[in-house]
Amino acid sequence: MRLFSVGAGASAERTLDGAEHPSAPIPIVGAGVGESVRVPLGETGFDTFPLMLGAAEFGWNVDLETSHGILDRYVEFGGNAIHTADGFSGGRSEHIIGQWLRSRGHRDRTLLSVRIGAHADNPGLGSVNLVRAVEGSLTRLGVERIDVLYLDATLDATTNLEDTLATVEWLVEAGKITTVGAFGFTPERLVEARILASAGYPRIEVIDAPYNLIRRQPFEGDLRLVAGAQNLAVTPSHALEHGFLSGRHRSKALAAQGVRGEQLRSHLNRRGIKILRALDQVATDLSVPVAAVSIAWLLAQRTIAAPIVNTFATDHVDELMQGAGVTLSRAQLADLTRAGI
């Protein structure tokens, strides 16, 4: 049973045994002096900032200079976890992160996660392409090791999972990766992976499943049940649904100006507007940005370790970081959750 605080200004919510609840407020202070808040990334042995900085837009809609500014600002708040993929901008995202890591000397203090399986040169999770993909990412990033390797099954749901995990085992033993995660895995495939882990293969420890206030399925179902039963850390991507849950795109005209115009416009229906109104109310009550409330809702959900957040501008980082310091009351959580039903 959990005891809930009244709002952002109230004391941290705690369980009856006195332990602080994961959605309790995290102290985020002014620019340049952000506290190094960390939460466990499941059973990986890594500790992560409650928000992972996603690099999906780097090299595509965000240039090198702005990308580095976003990374710098994230680190100023105490952030330590960066997430990219070999398929983001055809590998340019990894190049940009690699340049930043070298120029700032931040590799040893950064939790680096990479999703592989969607690069045009090495698609899928077959053994040969898997090794080539990891080597390609290591080269572009300019590092010797990837901390969390996410296996992307969206383009390859047929490769024998045992073969894939055997290759992952070799990559771990070779020191090229530390731990393994999954993206696009069905609940059944995660169960299969756990059975193989009991036979000695590497265990999947983390999953990335697109999840937010407006995109509730398929995560809220068997996938969440399996994640909970296996004690998997969940790092949901699309935390703001391409910016819609930041509250910046409230008309079809504004949505059309965004880089994800078609996707944004698809949410401007009765349900989407209802969700925005609920977010507005909570944001007004707590005097925080709408984006921060969207992040706070995610952090309050079971099994969520650290949402992956993407941004287009340095000043947007400030809004996102506030989400890690917000506690929602039971009533606020219920209102937001109901709005999306």
Helix content: 25-40%
Give the termini distance in whole angstroms. 24 Å
How would you spell out the order of helices and strands?
A: EEEHEHEHEHEHEHEHHHHEHH
Strand arrangement, major sheet: 9-8-7-6-5-4-3-10
* Unreliable runs: 1-35
- Average pLDDT rating: 87
| CATH topology descriptor of the domain at 39-248 and 304-324 | TIM Barrel
CA radius of gyration: 19 Å
Compute the number of helices: 12
Strand elements, count: 10
Q: Hey, roughly how much beta strand do the residues contain?
A: 5-15%
User: What is the CATH class designation of the domain at 39-248 and 304-324?
Assistant: Alpha Beta
CATH superfamily of the domain at 39-248 and 304-324: NADP-dependent oxidoreductase domain
Q: What is the quaternary state of this protein?
A: single chain
**Main sheet: strands, sense, barrel:** 8 strands, parallel
Supply the helix-strand structural class: alpha/beta
EC number: 1.1.1.-
Organism: Microbacterium hydrocarbonoxydans
Protein name: General stress protein 69
Keywords: Oxidoreductase
